[in-house]
Amino acid sequence: MTSQSQPPPLVRTAGEADAGEIAAVLGRAFDDDPVWQWILPDEASRVRRLTGVFGILLRQVHLRHEGSEAAGRGPDVEAAALWDPPGRWRVPFGAQAAQAVPLVRALGRRVPAALRALGEIEKHHPPEPHWYLAVLGTDPPAQGNGLGGALLRSRLDRCDAEGVPAYLESSKERNVPYYERFGFRVTRELAMPGRGCPPVWLMWRDPDGG
Q: Which residues form the N-acetyltransferase domain (predicted)?
């Protein structure tokens, strides 16, 4: 019996109705992320807490910018890219206030550690106009099927057409070569505050991957 080929990835704009499904996918995708493992060391509760964090960020920050996308090989969400358009990456004070109580609920006693880490990353965010890839993740069972690449190409093709750079932070060293294949280059290996916190790689992409 010959095996049927996988259907091509379907990429679409993410909306409010997708928030719960995307948050769950990202919670599982980032379970093995070195920085999030440091922030949330308890393995038993990490996916649940991450799902809560991503749900807050989706509803309070990213979805309202209408630049985030979801992907799958069928109707279900298997991967997502949370993008912020030029000039919109900084979280407004009102959104920060709205996040405060839910984040405390999701992160518990690790709120100070998370805020220090995220604050350090924000300090080094480039001021030039760019599309910001805040989060890219694929559900572990669906990894290796081109979903992340399809999501990247979807936005980066438009960046090239419009002559706009892109920027991201990679908290996994092994993902750096992957992003380099899409034209990103490391601008800095950022040491993070907190004893034992892994570094983060800041990556910039000029239009056309130049």
A: 45-208
